[in-house]
Specification:
Layout: H1 4-10, E1 16-17, H2 20-25, E2 40-42, H3 47-60, E3 64-67, E4 86-89, E5 96-100, E6 105-108, H4 114-122, E7 126-127, H5 140-145, E8 163-170, E9 175-177, H6 187-192, H7 209-212, E10 220-228, E11 230-231, E12 235-243, H8 246-258, E13 265-269, H9 270-277, H10 281-290, E14 295-303, H11 308-326, E15 333-334, E16 337-338, H12 339-346, E17 362-370, H13 372-388, E18 397-403, E19 408-417, H14 422-441, H15 454-458, H16 462-475
Parallel strand pairs: 2-4, 3-4
Antiparallel strand pairs: 1-2, 5-6, 6-10, 7-11, 8-9, 8-10, 12-14, 13-14, 13-18, 15-16, 17-19, 18-19
Helix pairs in contact: 8-11, 9-10, 13-14
Length: 488
């Protein structure tokens, strides 16, 4: 353990906390992770601070758990897995280093939230390709590093998008930059030469960002990232399509994305959509839910600076042809919800309280990647597990996000429960394990494993786990970076 006096020597005293109440806040989250209290919390302000902390931890063998988002946390990755750990809270590193409209890229530190970055990029006519309703305290860098799905598959070319470059301090204490940022000179010198830190691949033929993404802080601590942005549209048209089954909607999704018509494009069941738009408690949620079809596709058409009216007219004509051919009908209103109002909601962080906590106070998420042909069977399997466990399938939230130009999709199940009800919480914990096992047996791919099922998921691919351990041994030989997570 790094002595607190030593940490206070390299950081400001106020940036090192031993307060028992503060430590208790970091000892658990809203997941089912076991409670372990850290030894201290450090709050670096610069990349130099981070490098000094890592070097001290490496010398003393102190485990480090990096955190960039504010509470609440949901997945157990920010809770220490071993005693004697130091929390490295990066949420105070809030500098937006650069917003470059010409190259459509922003560079920023890990403490910057979606609300903060959204306001900054919109000032120059750009927008973020955001995940669906991130919580207000969510770090943009944290979301990018976790590969959270974004709502505009039209601009999602690779599973890593919209992540650009990364600056990271590995467990060795070395500062490393990926992608275009790994070129010669300082970042400022690269800007002077026309560089934009937008290309993710590199240095050389390696794609180091793929090892840092999804690693849950087990490789190093990121001190800034860059993200690709898109232009703000001049005109937008928002539409819903309702259905009793997801399959007809998926056929429409295929053509809307293939013809590059849809900007935002996502599917929700009526449970999730009702909770997202309801802010008036359980009664309001039930009324909204009952007014909706079981499945809802939401999408937008967008036109930009040049000939926006003509472009919107052409896209509308093509959209009508797609819906006619796939046997569905688009509308601007479903029940009491207008598509235009939902667009404003979907393009911003969640209002408070966070939408997943409004119904019962807590939520356990199960998410995975799959292809459209397997989707309906996987949903049916999850609903069967829920009914068998006494959890009404109708109360299961479902979110389907097409990704990578519609080549596959992220599917997410939300199990809402009362954390004060121990029997209900235990039933949801057991149900989440049962659903995960059922989904694996049916071919679901868990690319981002968290919690109790991580070991079983990682050990299904022994070759990949062995390769990751070799990389870990190179960049973190003393295993100080969030030990106990993933296969480490």
């Amino acid at each position: 353990m790094v002595p607190p006096s030593t940490l206070s020597g390299v950081l400001r005293a106020r940036d090192v906390s031993l307060d028992p109440d503060v430590l208790e806040q970091y000892s658990a989250d809203l997941s089912f992770a076991h409670r372990i209290r850290p030894e201290c919390v450090v709050r670096p302000r610069t990349a130099d601070d981070v490098q000094r902390i890592v070097n001290l931890a490496r010398e003393s063998g102190t485990p480090l758990v990096p955190i960039s988002s504010g509470p609440p946390h949901f997945r157990g990755d920010t809770v220490p897995s071993t005693g004697g750990a130091a929390i490295v809270d990066l949420s105070g590193m809030k500098k937006i280093v650069r917003v470059d409209r010409k190259n459509r890229v922003a560079l920023f530190e890990p403490g910057v939230t979606f609300g903060e970055l959204k306001a900054a990029v919109e000032k120059v006519g750009l927008r973020l390709n955001m995940p669906l309703l991130p919580r207000a305290s969510k770090s943009v860098a944290g979301s990018l590093l976790e590969r959270e799905p974004v709502t505009m598959p039209k601009y999602h070319w690779d599973i890593a998008d919209p992540l650009g470059c990364v600056e990271v301090v590995f467990g060795t204490g070395d500062l490393f930059r990926t992608g275009a940022a790994a070129g010669s000179g300082t970042i400022e010198e690269q800007w002077a030469a026309g560089g934009a830190q937008k290309e993710a691949a590199g240095p050389s033929s390696a794609s180091w960002y793929r090892l840092i993404q999804g690693s849950q802080g087990t490789m190093g601590i990121v001190t800034w990232v860059s993200a690709r942005c898109e232009l703000l549209p001049r005109m937008e048209e928002s539409l819903f399509i309702g259905s009793s089954r997801p399959d007809p909607l998926m056929r429409a999704v295929h053509w809307l994305i293939r013809l590059r018509l849809a900007n935002e494009c996502l599917l929700l069941n009526n449970t999730s959509l009702g909770l997202i738009v309801s802010e008036k408690g359980p009664d309001g949620y039930q009324r909204i839910k009952e007014s909706l079809p079981p499945w809802i596709l939401f999408f937008t058409l967008a036109a930009y600076d040049y000939f926006p009216e003509q472009r919107m007219a052409g896209q509308t004509k093509d959209m009508i042809e797609v819906t006619r051919r796939t046997g569905v009908q688009a509308t601007r209103t479903l029940g009491s919800i207008t598509a235009a109002a939902f667009l404003k909601t979907a393009q911003s962080p969640s209002s408070e309280p966070y939408w997943k906590l409004r119904h019962k106070g807590n939520c356990q998420d199960i998410f995975f990647l799959t292809t459209f042909d397997k989707l309906e069977g996987l949903i049916f399997g999850a609903q069967q597990c829920a009914d068998a466990a006494g959890y009404p399938a109708s109360e299961l939230g479902v979110y389907i996000q097409p990704i990578v130009q519609g080549a596959s999709c992220h599917c997410e199940f939300n199990l809402f429960y009362d954390p004060e009800n121990r029997s209900e919480a235990e039933r949801v914990r057991e149900l989440s394990v049962a659903i995960t096992k059922s989904l694996i047996a049916r071919g679901a791919f868990f690319s981002r494993p968290y919690g109790d099922m991580t070991g079983m998921i990682m050990n299904r691919d022994g070759a990949s786990a062995a390769a990751l351990k070799k990389v870990k041994a190179m960049v973190d030989p003393r295993n100080i970076m969030n030990p106990g997570k993933l296969c480490f």
